[in-house]
Amino acid sequence: MEVTGVYLVALMLFAAVSSTVVNACPPSDRKALLAFKSALTEPYLGIFDTWTGTDCCTNWYGVSCDPTDSRVNDIILRGESEDKIFERTGRSGYMTGWLSPSLCSLDRLTTLVVADWKGISGEIPACITSLPHLRILDLIGNQITGKIPADIGKLEKLTVLNVADNKITGEISPSIVNLRSLMHLDLSNNQITGVLPADLGKLSMMSRALLNRNRITGTIPSSISGIYRLADLDLSMNMISGTIPAQIGSMPVLSTLNLDSNRITGEIPASLLSNSGLNIVNLSRNSLDGHLPDVFTPRTYFSVLDLSFNKLKGAIPKSLSAARYIGHLDLSNNHLCGSIPVGFPFDHLEASSFSNNDCLCGSPLMRVC
Known about the structure:
It contains 4 helices and 20 strands. It is of the alpha/beta class. It has a 12-stranded mixed sheet with strand order 2-3-5-7-8-9-10-11-12-14-16-18, with no helix packed on it. It has a 5-stranded parallel sheet with strand order 13-15-17-19-20, with no helix packed on it. Strands 1-4-6 form a 3-stranded mixed sheet.
């Protein structure tokens, strides 16, 4: 019996030790995380104070691991959060430093979020494209410079690419169209130049494409119309020229289209204003000309329709009165003429919606027809 008892005790001790070994993250992952930490300085919240001990899977702020093998899966560090650590200090996060290439040693990483820290600079490590399981890359709200890695298209499982509100330069890599799983693309508010890839339409899973506030030139690729799931397209505040592809008006899910503050010319496609699914359309501050398409119906529903600061001419279509709803309508600063139709939606609009045209008259303008 004594032998059996000793054997059982030894077996329990072995199991406990084995469990500890299995549950602890591998030394290589811990080393990579500590190298990542050493490149950053976070002086106010103390989030890296929790990164101590041998097991980076337990109580390391923002780090989570695969429960089956204790490999690091996720790094989620947000400088804007409702987490208690922010509530205690009563401030948002601030962090300086750069993103260490040591991250690329975490070859089981699926999520990398280092967002809204305001002071992180340097470039995106080129080796980040070697992470075969990466699904989310979110670096919004920092001071990151340099280009998006040229072979970004190697991240075949990537569903979210968000590098908005940084100082990224250079052109959009043609390889980006190989991200066939991509659903959310946000490159807004950077210094990106060059043209949009002609075959951007290959990103067939994408539901949001936000590329506003950059220095993008060239034309809008007609292939975009092939992105069946695209609901939100924002190309505003760039230097895009050419015409609006008529095919965009036939996109079945598109609800928000912002093309304002570019150099777009030509006429407004009739299909764009007759698409009953479109809810927000802003084409202001371009060089669009021609007449407003007379295509409005009882299915027309616009929360926002802004066509101001263009070169539109002719009369306001009377069919606009048939629209089911138009919340904000701005036709100011064009070359429109004739009487403003009466009734809805014109009866709730202010004069500023029609100001600075050639010869519009009627309410709410003071000019009598």
